[in-house]
Design a protein that fits this description.
The complex is a heterodimer. In chain A, 74% of the residues lie in helices and 3% in strands. By secondary structure, chain A is mostly helical. Chain A is globular, with a radius of gyration of 18 Å. Chain B is an all-alpha fold. Chain B has a single domain, classed as ABC transporter involved in vitamin B12 uptake, BtuC. Chain B is 74% helix and 1% strand. Chain B has a two-stranded antiparallel ribbon with strand order 1-2. In chain B, helix 3 runs parallel beside helix 8 and helix 3 crosses helix 13. Classes of the chains: A mainly alpha, B mainly alpha. At the A-B interface, helix 4, helix 9 and helix 11 of A face helix 6, helix 13 and helix 15 of B. Chain A: It is found in: Cell membrane.
């Protein structure tokens, strides 16, 4: 029984990280109808910024969070405004290929400048014991940060006028335009938020997982799965999708071996794609 | 535009240029010609589902990798090379037909994601099924004890044969009811179903065609290199590369994908040779430029328009 509680808590902590990782990707897909192949590299870029700030200047990752968030937002906003907006209504083949091309450029630049050596920030915060469950503190802090940022995004989407405008564009682009919303600008802001959340995930990941360009594809794959599981373009969807994936991976890893954890995630995604393409909490007609 | 003559002339000329490389060029050029032929076959195959039907399929690498593995496993069990390739083709075609029946129900972005997931899933299954596939260690194939020149020439002709077969299949499909139906699906799937096209069967046929030649090429490639492993056989990068080649030449045309493959491979060789550290980024720039400045592909250039015997009806 104790072992299952441990797996459950590991799964939930992992799930919160996955939710934070995928929520930006989900928002971009839902609002812009663009599959952003850059997302994995955005995460790693955020991780690198955090790592080098800590390694070279001794800046604590938590202090880096707002800096990375601002930088990534600016990068995402500029990319969308200058490049992707020009083909944003083209078929998926065009937009996906374009973001993949951009990803090749970013990936190559990062591999060239930072090399592919895995790097990680070790904070050595020890662990807390809760009954029979052991929780490493750095992971707990990471989970807390990830959850806090995801909930903050939820509040922004619900409460601010920008957030309401994004939701409006997502529901009906032409109607939103008729209401005086500048969709091009909303697209750029949304893509900026997507990059920002990827960067935030990168900050958290730098303290939990090794940062290297080799894993961009893995994180991108997780974002796919979380989006399909939870449903597109909503914060609660990403949260549910992330937690489900975290739990599935933890239990599958326990029962079938760690190698099968990722396989289980993809199988789950394919099954859900075919049975419930709107995701677990999605609304039909919103995809 | 009704006359197919420029098309056939260009096709024959292109194949002749590739086939005669052993007569006047060194082994490096012959190898590049074989790679051009191989990617030409892959891009031409993708064209069935991506170009004609307009489904954004990203599963090429899955078919290529599975073909390589089925071929390699057969050869390791003593089945002669040619027969192993044939078995790989048939097995993967059957797999694609089954898979198509499932994932072709998805459309647009969901289909794209689903088809990418297929590549990842194949890689994961192959790397964890180590009793059959050798897992992450990969598989060695029986080595062919031929002189290098002869070996290279042999595989050049094999790849050319696969390319030719895929092109002939394209021409046949283009002129048949199937091609017409696929183009209808591209324009408007619901309307196509309404006027009596069995869209499910047509899409599965296109998907299967897009898998077959990839499997043959994969199996031949495995015999050529003598060693395969999961990471190299199932690469998302390869899948996207093939799509970019087809777009570069002109998706939905007969010769476009093969032409795009040739242009892409030559560019890639150039970048590899001169900008080793930055070749991936340069390819990324090529993709970005392609999307912005040449969305219709090379065959939309005025000089090459006459080769455009077939074109998809309405671009979205």
């Amino acid at each position: 029984m104790a072992i299952y509680l441990q797996i459950l808590s590991n799964g939930l902590m992992l799930g919160a990280l996955y939710a934070c990782l995928a929520v930006g990707f989900s928002l971009v897909w839902g609002v812009l109808n663009v599959i952003n192949m850059l997302h994995g590299s955005f995460i790693i870029l955020g991780g690198y910024l955090t790592f080098f700030a800590w390694h070279l200047y001794g800046i604590h990752p938590v202090a880096m969070l707002p800096v990375v968030a601002a930088l990534m937002f600016a990068l995402g906003f500029a990319l969308q405004k200058l490049v992707i907006n020009r083909v944003v209504s083209a078929p998926v083949l065009t937009t996906l290929t374009l973001t993949f091309g951009l990803d090749m450029i970013l990936y190559n630049a990062m591999t060239y400048w930072f090399t592919a050596t895995p790097r990680r920030i070790t904070l050595d915060l020890g662990a807390v014991q809760l009954g029979s469950i052991v929780l490493p503190v750095d992971r707990l802090v990471g989970t807390g940060l990830a959850l806090a940022m995801t909930l903050l995004l939820y509040a922004v989407m619900r409460g601010s006028s920008i957030g309401r405008a994004i939701v409006a564009v997502r529901m009906d682009r032409s109607a939103a335009e008729l209401m005086g919303i500048r969709t091009d600008r909303i697209y750029a802001i949304t893509f900026g938020i997507g990059a920002l959340m990827a960067g935030v995930a990168g900050v958290v990941f730098a303290t939990v997982f090794p940062i290297t360009t080799n894993v961009t594809g893995i994180w991108l794959g997780k974002a796919f799965v979380v989006c399909v599981v939870g449903g597109l373009g909503s914060v609660p969807g990403a949260l549910v999708g992330g937690l489900v994936l975290g739990l599935v991976e933890s239990f599958a890893g326990h029962w079938f071996g760690p190698q099968q954890a990722i396989t289980a995630g993809f199988v789950l995604m394919l099954v859900l794609l075919l049975t419930r393409p709107t995701g677990l909490v999605g609304v039909r007609g919103y995809e | 535009m009704k006359s197919g003559f420029p098309l056939y002339a260009a096709l024959v000329a292109g194949l002749l240029v590739l086939a005669t490389t052993p007569l006047y060029a060194d082994n490096y050029v012959v190898r590049t010609a074989a790679i051009v032929a191989m990617y030409g076959a892959l891009a031409t195959s993708w064209n069935f589902i991506g170009g004609f039907t307009g489904y954004p399929s990203f599963s090429t690498a899955a078919f290529f990798g599975l073909g390589a593995y089925v071929g390699a496993i057969c050869q390791r069990h003593g089945i002669p090379m040619g027969l192993a390739w044939a078995i790989a083709t048939v097995v993967v075609a059957a797999f694609a037909a089954l898979l198509g029946g499932i994932i072709l129900r998805l459309r647009g972005h969901y289909f794209a994601i689903g088809s990418i997931a297929v590549v990842e899933l194949c890689r994961l299954v192959v790397s964890s099924w180590s009793t059959l596939t050798g897992g992450g260690d990969g598989l060695n194939l029986p080595l062919m004890s031929w002189p290098p020149e002869e070996l290279m020439r042999f595989f050049l002709f094999v790849m050319l044969a696969i390319l030719l077969a895929s092109l002939i299949a394209t021409i046949l499909v283009d002129r048949s009811r199937l091609g017409f139906g696929l183009r209808c699906i591209h324009q408007n799937e619901d309307a196509a179903a309404m006027v009596g096209i069995n869209t499910t069967v047509y899409k599965i046929a296109a998907y299967t065609l897009s898998a077959m030649f990839c499997a043959t090429a994969g199996a031949a490639y495995a015999s050529w290199t003598g060693y395969i492993d999961p990471t190299d056989s199932f690469q998302i990068v390869m899948t996207v590369k093939v799509v970019v080649m087809a777009l570069l030449g002109g998706a939905g045309t007969i010769l476009g994908p093969a032409l795009g493959a040739a242009a892409f491979v030559l560019l890639e060789e150039l970048f590899w040779a001169n900008f080793l550290d930055w070749n991936r980024a340069i390819l990324g720039v090529v993709i970005v430029l392609l999307i912005f400045f040449l969305p219709g592909g090379l065959l939309s250039l005025r000089a090459l328009r006459r080769l455009r015997a077939a074109k998809i009806g309405g671009r979205e």
